[in-house]
């Protein structure tokens, strides 16, 4: 019964409604207007595909210039996306896009072209592949380096179930820096699974190898004739071990002279490439050949980020994720002046503290720009370490440095810190090492959606012994907490949200605040609101309507026990507010505190993120949906007070 259910679940994507063949079009009509699904794409001639690539880029630039989104990485995979859907029988064959920053053209070609105007917006399609959005999205992604493991799992499932479908993982050179990717490669090479890994290498210019000889070799080495001769020779040479070893070494030597595939060959893959990832004829021919091959295959393609849009080609970093822009000039549309972001506050603090303490080291797992380390990396290059997409390594690297007397600061997104949880516990907290975690993107992150939302860090951090955990209410407090954590003699964390602050004056000096000391910001009656973090502003606005007391708690661990007991004994209702899931969060810590230190049975209302994944959209709208804006706070407290009458 279980096997039958599993089989039916795996079959589900193949039941996508088939579209009719490409309708007749006039000479001047765009090809893209007649393509809704890969079934229709596969009716085109190969000669029509380059024109389709041009039209796709034009449509994409017009759309993303209005909505914003991931730009440069997507422009680099137009030809690859066309070729994959043209050669493979999707959705029956599985395409697994690593991270998903390169999946927009996949969405356009799989029935979602008309929905692209809604991408990353409330109620619109997601910016990443999502299984419940389309049967063509074989695996939901958001964090990098998962594609090979997932594709291998699917390939092994296909083998178990006796299915002939193919599994293809498309991974970037940046994502290949993660240990998880190499764990999957190491495992896949031992197995006889029909898996194709495509390395989309866009971190270098097209090398001399990607020329006539390399292209010719790619076609030869991926051809059925070469594969059959190669396998037949192996069988023959089994009876002559010395000759077999000589032939193997000769083949490796010849390939190693021309192509950088030795590592992947040693891992058990049949390596092909590198080839030009923008050359549709060579892509089509190579993929067609490799589709017929058995066992683990590895195709190395060279692409250019931002291909076809000069602004993105020249500056792929700043055009990785964009706000609305002018599609003709590439100029970002002007924004109204706002307060500095919390990321900018951290960036400035890091440089100021580095000037004061030469022991400070800045570490990031491939998020130099996003985490605000660009200025620091230029001012203190010898004290800056970008470890690539290797969150686990970044934390243990910091631990090793701390053991020798340095003061590491790990700048990391909340959702990325999840990937280094064992290292956080075992390598840092257990040894009580002075590592400061500057946790960006805590709470809701808006358009990036649930894969990047920092909903859980208070819950998973506060149960770890030795941790000092802080959540600032504003920009100035963020700077003070960073200083406090840096000067603390054990592990510490400061969590702050994405986006701009509220516009308070930020002091230039590097001052600390007393640990475990909350600050009462408003004295009222009956209701006491305990706020953890940047939701203090709407809480104060709500308190004005309710005549409630408001406390900026500041510390999640350790708590200000005296303040909590005081509020519980002088008010009829305690309310906790946090931009973290309620389950196991700061509100739970208040419950535990009261249970441990007093017999007072003051009713408590917990407000925070729900026990569900919050979808993508405008952050202010999402907070309102979660009841964490001023009106939502007033409504929840008013309802609770009515119940207590």
Report on this model:
This protein is α/β, with parallel strands linked by helices. The protein has 3 domains: 302 residues, 3-Layer(aba) Sandwich (Rossmann fold), CATH 3.40.50.970; 154 residues, Thiamin diphosphate (ThDP)-binding fold, Pyr/PP domains (Rossmann fold), CATH 3.40.50; 125 residues, Rossmann fold, CATH 3.40.50. Helix content is 41%, strand content 14%. The strands form 4 sheets. Strands 9-8-10-11-13-12-17 form a 7-stranded mixed sheet, sandwiched between helices. Helix 7 runs parallel beside helix 8 and helix 23 packs across helix 24. It starts with a helix and ends with a helix.
Task: Detail the topology: elements first, then pairings.
Blueprint: H1 2-11, H2 38-41, H3 49-67, E1 69-70, H4 72-75, H5 78-87, E2 94-97, H6 104-112, H7 147-161, E3 167-172, H8 179-188, E4 195-201, H9 212-221, H10 224-237, H11 241-258, H12 262-266, E5 270-276, H13 280-291, E6 297-302, H14 310-314, E7 321-322, H15 342-356, E8 360-364, H16 374-379, E9 384-386, H17 391-403, E10 407-413, H18 414-417, H19 421-429, E11 436-440, H20 457-462, E12 468-470, H21 475-487, E13 492-495, E14 519-522, E15 527-532, H22 536-546, E16 549-552, E17 555-557, H23 561-570, E18 573-581, H24 586-597, E19 604-609, H25 619-625, H26 630-644
Parallel strand pairs: 2-3, 3-4, 4-6, 5-6, 8-9, 8-10, 10-11, 11-13, 12-13, 15-16, 15-18, 18-19
Antiparallel strand pairs: 1-7, 12-17, 14-16
Helix pairs in contact: 5-13, 7-8, 15-21, 17-19, 22-26, 23-24
């Amino acid at each position: 019964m279980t096997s039958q259910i599993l089989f039916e679940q795996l079959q589900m994507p193949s039941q996508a409604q088939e579209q009719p063949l490409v309708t007749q079009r006039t000479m001047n009509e765009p090809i893209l207007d007649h393509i809704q699904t890969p079934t229709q794409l596969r009716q085109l001639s190969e000669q029509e595909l380059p024109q389709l690539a041009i039209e796709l880029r034009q449509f994409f630039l017009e759309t993303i210039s209005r909505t914003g989104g991931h730009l440069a990485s997507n422009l680099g995979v137009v030809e690859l996306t066309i070729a994959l859907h043209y050669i493979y029988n999707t959705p029956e064959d599985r395409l697994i896009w690593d991270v998903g920053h390169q999946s927009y053209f996949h969405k356009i070609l799989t029935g979602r072209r008309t929905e692209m105007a809604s991408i990353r917006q409330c109620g619109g399609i997601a910016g990443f592949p999502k299984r419940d959005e389309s049967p063509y999205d074989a695996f939901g992604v958001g964090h990098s380096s998962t594609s090979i493991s997932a594709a291998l799992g699917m390939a092994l499932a296909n083998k178990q179930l006796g299915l002939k479908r193919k599994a293809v993982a498309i991974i970037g050179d940046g994502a290949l820096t993660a240990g998880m990717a190499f764990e999957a490669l190491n495992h896949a090479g031992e197995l006889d699974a029909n898996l194709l890994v495509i390395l989309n290498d866009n971190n270098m210019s097209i090398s001399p190898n990607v020329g006539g000889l390399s292209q010719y070799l790619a076609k030869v080495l991926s051809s059925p004739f070469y594969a059959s001769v190669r396998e037949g020779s192996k069988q023959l040479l089994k009876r002559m071990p010395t000759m077999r070893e000589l032939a193997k070494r000769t083949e490796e030597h010849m390939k190693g002279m021309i192509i950088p595939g030795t590592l992947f060959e040693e891992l058990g893959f049949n390596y092909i490439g590198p080839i030009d990832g923008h050359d549709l004829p060579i892509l089509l021919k190579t993929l067609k050949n490799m589709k017929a091959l058995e066992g683990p295959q590895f195709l190395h393609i060279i692409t250019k980020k931002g291909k076809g849009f000069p602004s993105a080609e020249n500056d792929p970093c700043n055009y990785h994720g964009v706000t609305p822009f002018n599609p003709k000039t590439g100029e970002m549309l002007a924004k109204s002046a706002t307060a500095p972001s919390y990321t900018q506050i951290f960036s400035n603090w890091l440089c100021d503290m580095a000037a004061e303490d030469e022991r400070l080291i800045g570490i990031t797992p491939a998020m130099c720009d996003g985490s605000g380390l660009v200025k620091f990396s230029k001012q203190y290059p010898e004290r800056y370490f970008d470890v690539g997409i290797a969150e686990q390594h970044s934390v243990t690297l910091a631990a090793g440095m701390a053991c020798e007397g340095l003061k590491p600061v790990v700048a990391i997104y909340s959702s990325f810190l999840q990937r280094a949880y064992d290292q956080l516990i075992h390598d840092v907290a257990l040894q009580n090492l002075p590592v400061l975690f500057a946790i960006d993107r805590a709470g809701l992150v808006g358009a990036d959606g649930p894969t990047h939302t920092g909903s859980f860090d208070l819950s998973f951090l506060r149960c770890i012994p030795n941790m000092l955990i802080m959540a600032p209410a504003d920009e100035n407090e963020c700077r003070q907490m960073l200083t406090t954590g840096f000067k603390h003699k054990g592990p510490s964390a400061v969590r702050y949200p994405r986006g701009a602050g509220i516009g308070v004056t930020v002091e230039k000096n590097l001052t600390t605040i007393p640990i475990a000391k909350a600050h009462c910001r408003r004295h009222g009656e009956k209701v006491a609101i305990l706020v953890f973090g940047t939701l203090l502003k709407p809480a104060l606005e709500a308190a004005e309507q309710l005549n409630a007391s408001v406390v900026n708690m500041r510390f999640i661990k350790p708590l200000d026990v005296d303040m909590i007991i005081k509020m519980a004994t002088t008010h009829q209702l305690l309310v906790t507010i946090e931009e973290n899931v309620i389950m196991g969060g700061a509100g739970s810590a208040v419950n535990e505190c009261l249970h441990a230190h007093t017999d007072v049975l003051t009713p408590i209302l917990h407000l925070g993120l729900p026990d569900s994944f919050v979808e993508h959209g405008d952050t202010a709208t999402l907070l309102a949906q979660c009841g964490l804006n001023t009106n939502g706070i007033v409504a929840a407290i008013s309802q609770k007070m009515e119940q207590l009458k």
